[in-house]
Known about the structure:
mainly alpha
Amino acid sequence: MEAFAVNVHMLRERQDEEQQQKLKADYLSRDYAKRLKSLQKEHGLAGHHETDKTVLPIADNNRAVDSRMEAHKLLRGVQ
Length: 79
């Protein structure tokens, strides 16, 4: 019986940790989206952030350009 109680306690602790991580990830995701939009406006980058779709524009060399990577480069430069 004591082992069961210990296991339940450990399970609850893990669930609490997972919930905290999820909340943090959600917050960071919203913050990142806001900063991305702000940087796109500031630097005149065309880009529409949609949650269901990812649009990859084509560069001069006919290769897809991931705007998230470009935004990441901009964010690194800001920090």
